[in-house]
Amino acid sequence: MQFHKYFFTPRLIKQYDGSKISYEPGALEKYGDQLLTALNLMWSFSYYTSPILVSILYRRGYFVAESVGTFAKVTTGIGLLVAVSLCMRGLGRSMNVAYVRFAETLENAKRSSARNGDAKKALRQYDFDFSHWPVDYVTRLVVPDRKTIAKPSISASSPHRHPDPIPCHVAAYIAVHTFGIRMIYPGSVRLLQSYMEPMIVEGRTKLVKTFNGERNKLRTTDGNEIDTIFVDYRHRTNQNANGATLVICSEGNASFYEIGIMSTPLELKYSVLGWNHPGFAGSSGRPYPDQDQNAIDAVLQFAIGELGFKPENIILYGWSIGGYSTLYGASLFPEVKGVILDATFDDVLELALPRMPESISNIVRIAIREFVNLNNRDLITEYPGPVLFIRRTEDEIICSEENNLATNRGNFLLINMLQFRFPYIFKSEQLPYAKELLSKPIDLMINDTDLTGRLMDYVGQNTPDGILRYPLQIGNEADFSSDSRRAWVKFLITKHLSDFKSTHCTPLPKEFFQSPWELPSELDYYVVSHDKTRRWPR
User: Which of 52, 173, 372, 513 is found 20 to 30 A from 337 (Cα to Cα)?
Assistant: First the structure.
């Protein structure tokens, strides 16, 4: 490789050499890289604080003609420093035998199109700047056994327009596209990523070395590149029944797959696929809803079309804001085995309004509804399969009011789903009782044998063609009393909800990670919701 090309080759972080993890840059590369990193951090800090800096510089007279010469000198000095740093780094890399070997391996992998070829396997022995990683999978519109990717009948990102003044819309647009999206997804802020990089690298190293994780880059339909890692437990042991099921993990707003929720299903030896939101760590783009939708679409297509998992063997697992990605993925692929929602919400607007000054509530509402409309209430009615809600009883993030379990937004999402699926049980007069039950930790010690039997009878009597359709008509019988509905309300809530006594960010213990409850039946049958058909395995 020619010397000048080493100026722009990627930073090599680690080399997985057998049992050892190593890579020691030489002095020239080390100091050149440190200078460039420091300059990049200064630029990021200046970008985020630019309104304040511009105001200060203007008041001190730095925008007058006399200051142009000084500004030019400073810019020239910074440019020379960048050039010197690049030369130092390039020279140091070209003299390092380990780095030269890595650069050759990277070039070979870029020429190879096979994801599991020898060149890619050799490249996976290195951890480096992921923007230079060759693309392993390009999202297509067609995957095996599926002619088209169905889109939800309700777009979760479609704007709900209001007759608001144009200045409010302009202010909302500017707010979201500057600091707003970073407030909602702080994990996309480069300064935070730089601070967390040692932990992220350490977590990724553990996934690769301890669990034999395989890193892949997926290209979405909108051109973003998504950083993923796959841990395959399918063939590791004959005694592991969980390995045949793939758990796809969608992280929170400041979490990464390297240090996120993958650890829980891995403890139970599920096959696991983790991914980072657009703009997080190795993923490009920004976490706007449309980009996040395309990302989870790519992840699911990759799992089915490339990794070889059938949808009915996939569980979608989302924590916090990752519940939105999870539910959107479930709406695209309603055949998936189940959905697990941990500490998630019904509508991000309901969380944003109590935390913002009332004077700008109108702008906040416009900004959320038009540009970041993470409305899980709409999406959850698009998925007809089993859902498990995990609620943190001391959650300080998902509650509208601190230390008030009744205001946990997961309560409202659960009621919304059950009201859609069982409208004649969750009638308006039963909703206060449902909210009362959810205002305190749920008592799971109830005798549900009779109700389970009655539900099985209903399925048998009302599905002569083997098809059960949501919403169900159970509870519409003339002799169905109010007391009966209250018993059914408690029964259905306890079957879909698991309480975990913890705060929002506590790692989920493995005993709480369970397959969602399915409607009981003596036979396999089909469920159809919004013209979608899903087979429910026994």
Answer: 372
The predicted model gives 390-419 an average pLDDT of 96
- How far is residue 505's CA from residue 525's CA, in Å, rounded to a whole number? 38
pLDDT band at 62 (very low <50, low <70, confident <90, very high): low
CA distances in angstroms from 256 to 44, 62, 63, 91, 217, listed in the order given:
20, 41, 41, 34, 15
3-state secondary structure of 113: coil
Contacts of 173 by beta carbon, 8 Å cutoff, 6+ apart: 367, 370, 371
Q: Write the burial class of residue 61 (CB in 10 Å: 0-12 exposed, 13-18 middle, 19+ buried).
A: exposed
Reported residue count of the chain is 538
Q: What number of CA atoms fall less than 13 Å from residue 239's CA on the CB side?
A: 1
pLDDT tens-place string over residues 72-131: 666 777 788 888 888 888 888 888 899 999 999 999 999 887 788 899 999 999 999 999
Contact in structure between 537 and 312 (CB atoms under 8 Å): yes
Question: Tens digit of pLDDT for each residue in 491-523?
Answer: 999 999 999 999 999 999 999 999 999 877 544
| SS3 readout for 152-175 | CCCCCCCCCCCCCCHHHHHHHHHH
Residue 273 is encoded by which pair of tokens?
């696929």
- Alpha-carbon dihedral sign for residues 287, 332, 318, 249: negative
Structure tokens at 436: 């009362």
Closest CA to 198 of 99, 278, 281, 142: 281
36 to 44, 46, 78, 477: CA distances (angstroms): 12, 15, 11, 72
The bridge status of strand 387-392 relative to strand 497-500 is: parallel
C-alpha 521/C-alpha 14 separation (Å) is 52
Query: β-pairing, 137-138 with 214-219?
Result: parallel
Are 322 and 328 a contacting pair, CB within 8 Å? no
CA 96 to chain centre: 38
Residue reference for tokens 């802020």: 189
Q: Would the pTM count as exceeding 0.70?
A: yes
**β-bridge partners, 389:** 341, 497
| DSSP at 177 | I
Beta-sheet strands, E only, within 42-128: 126-128
Is residue 342 within 8 Å of residue 319, measured between CB atoms?
yes
Alpha helix segments (H runs only) across 270-389: 289-305, 322-332, 348-352, 361-371, 376-380
Beta-sheet pairing, 532-536 with 525-529: antiparallel
